[in-house]
Specification:
Layout: E1 2-5, H1 8-21, E2 27-31, H2 38-49, E3 63-66, E4 75-79, H3 87-92, E5 103-107, E6 120-127, E7 137-144, H4 146-149
Parallel strand pairs: 2-5, 2-6, 4-5
Antiparallel strand pairs: 1-7, 3-4, 6-7
Helix pairs in contact: 1-2
Bound molecules: adenosine-5'-diphosphate and magnesium ion.
InterPro entries: P-loop_NTPase (IPR027417), T6A_TsaE (IPR003442)
Main location: cytoplasm
GO molecular function: ATP binding; metal ion binding
Amino acid sequence: MQITVNSPEQMQELGRRLAKLLRAGDLVMLNGELGAGKTTLTRGLGEGLGVRGAVTSPTFVIARVHPSLGGGPPLVHVDAYRLGGGLDEMEDLDLDVSLSDSVIVVEWGEGKVEELTDDRLLVVIHRAVGDTTDEVRHVTLTGFGERWATADLSVLSA
Ligand code: ADP
Ligand code: MG
């Protein structure tokens, strides 16, 4: 599934839509270079999930927990860039929430957090080649595992 996004606002809207597909225990991995829009997408996700607290770059804290305001799953937002050891370190973070009860969004977690679950949604964001506005992004979504085998991602591009 590939979606073209033309502005930060549209990226946030994509996050809000994606939130509707997510439930407790889901792992979303966000890849893409610095400034691609991973945190912007997560901000929309947080809005869609109805969580407390502004979603900002977690770069200096590794992980931030945003509790739900409406009884849904909390959002655990991880920047794996500083998560050297992967899963073991995740568990050592003492996040105060159970990961299986949360929606987990990991920026730059490739090769580090796959073992959290067989099921994951990989979101890769690329800047569009030759885009002089630097606002166009191509977003590729790929679901892995049983959880995503039957998910209808086409609702995201509506
Ligand atoms: P990352 O987390 O991938 O490093 P951020 O979401 O923190 O990226 O920052 C993306 C930056 O790019 C923001 O300043 C945002 O305003 C800008 N931007 C421009 N166009 C887009 C777009 N289509 N989607 C997301 N961000 C965009
Ligand atoms: Mg970021």
